[in-house]
Amino acid sequence: MSLKRTLLFMFIPAAVKKALLRELSEFTAYAFACAPPEIGELSYTEMLVRYAEFSREEAEKAIEKGDGIGEIKQRLYENARLLGQKFKARYRLNTLKDAFGMARAIFRILRIDFQGNPSGEIVVRRCFFSSRFSKEVCSIVSSFDEGLLAGLSGGAVLTSFERTADCSSCCRARFVFQDTPDRK
Questions:
Q1: Residue 60 located in a structural domain
Q2: What is the rounded end-to-end Cα distance, in angstroms, of the chain?
Q3: DSSP 120
Q4: CA nearest 152: which of 73, 71, 57, 86?
Q5: CB atoms closer than 10 angstroms to residue 169
Q6: Is residue 184 domain-resident?
Q7: How far apart are CA 152 and CA 129, in angstroms?
Q8: Residue 161 neighbours by CB distance under 10 Å
C-alpha cells in the first residue's frame, strides 16, 4: 500500500475534507439541477451541516414534485461513480481491501461509520445524516453511496439494502463484486 494512501486512511487534513465537500456539493447540485449551496468561508463542520441541509431540501422538493426521482438518483450514482473511479486511479486501488479502505476514509469525512468486508457486506453503525434525513430522502441520496462504491471497486453492484425504519441505527448493504475491465 502506498504511503500516501496509508496516511489518507489514517488522517484526513481539514483542507482535504473541505475540498471533498465542495466537490460533493457541486455533484449533488448537478443531480438536482440547481445551484450548489454557498459554503465558501464556512468551517468544515459548518460545511457538512450545510451540505446535509442542502441535500435534504433538494430531495424533499423532488419528493414533493413526485417526478424525476429516478433521473436524480441516476445522476447522483453516475457522479459518485466517476468520483470513485478518480480516487481508484489516483490512489492505485487494486484490491477490495483498498476500495473499502478508501470508502471508509471518504465516509469518515462525512461522519459516517462505514464498515465493509471482502465478501461485500457493509454495515453503517452511525451516520451524521440519519437525524437529518427521512427514510425517503435517504433512499434518494444513498444512490451516491452506491455509485461511489462502484467506482472505487471497479464494478460493485448493490444486490440488497436494509435501512432501519428511521435511519437512526444500523443500516446494512450487500455488494457483489463483478469482474469488469477496470477492475484488477
A1: yes
A2: 15
A3: S
A4: 86
A5: 13
A6: no
A7: 22
A8: 15
Domain with residue 51: its CATH number is 3.30.1380
Alpha-carbon distance of 165 to 43, in angstroms, equals 32
Mean pLDDT rounded to a whole number for the chain: 86
Residue 15, C-alpha cell as written in the block? 483542507
Indicate whether 129 belongs to any domain. yes
Q: How many domains does the chain have?
A: 1
Which DSSP symbol is given to 35? P
Q: Is 82 helix (H, G, I), strand (E, B) or coil?
A: helix
Measure the CA–CA gap between 138 and 76, rounded to whole angstroms. Answer: 12
Q: How far apart are CA 37 and CA 55, in angstroms?
A: 9
Cβ–Cβ under 8 Å, residues 147 and 161: no
Convert the pLDDT of each residue in 99-130 to its tens digit.
888 999 999 999 999 998 878 888 888 889 98
Q: Assess if residue 183 is contained within a domain.
A: no
Residue 156: beta bridge partners? 177
Q: Is pLDDT at 6 greater than 80 in this prediction?
A: no
Across the beta sheet with 112-116, what order do the strands follow? 112-116, 121-127, 171-177, 156-162
Which residue segment(s) compose the domain that 139 sits in? 3-177
The DSSP 8-state label assigned to residue 96 in this structure reads H
Give the global pTM: 0.85
DSSP-derived letter for residue 162 is E
CB 54 within 8 A of CB 25: yes
* Helix orientation angle between 14-31 and 44-65, rounded to the nearest 10 degrees: 10
Whether 74 shows a pLDDT value over 90: the answer reads yes
